[in-house]
Input
Amino acid sequence: MSRKPHRLPAGHVLAPALLIGSMALVLALGLETLRILEQVNSIAGRWLAEVGLGNFSKSLPGWLIWLATGLVAYGLSGAILCVPCIWRRLVLWISSLAILIFWVPVLGLATYVPDIAAPLIAAVWSGICALVYAYNHRMPVDELPISQADGQS
Output
């Protein structure tokens, strides 16, 4: 069964990006309320301790963690919806996840507690939702000729 692009509904960027980002934030806040994020952060801390980076003398302020979570949730969903082609969207999502995961040892080297669970959960959820939305809709950027979608004249 092949997809018929002309039969897909027209997609938008702003409203879906805001809704997807909001859902990702609500999910992260819900997991924080259930104390599941603490467990994920402690797993990261134990892993850092195993590799010799377990001396955490500082912690990031809570507002900074949630600011990063909001930026990831809204920024990643908006970016995915603004990029043409499914493989580019996948590369963007996987690259964002990799960058967030590789912040764990960076925080450990700086002797910060690795509180990375909230932004990571937001990135996973907003990425999945944005990919599903873009796959099931005719996005405006997908209808541009390739030279214009790439930013060339």
User: Anything to note?
Assistant: The chain has one domain: 13-137. Residues 49 and 55 are 7 Å apart (CA to CA).
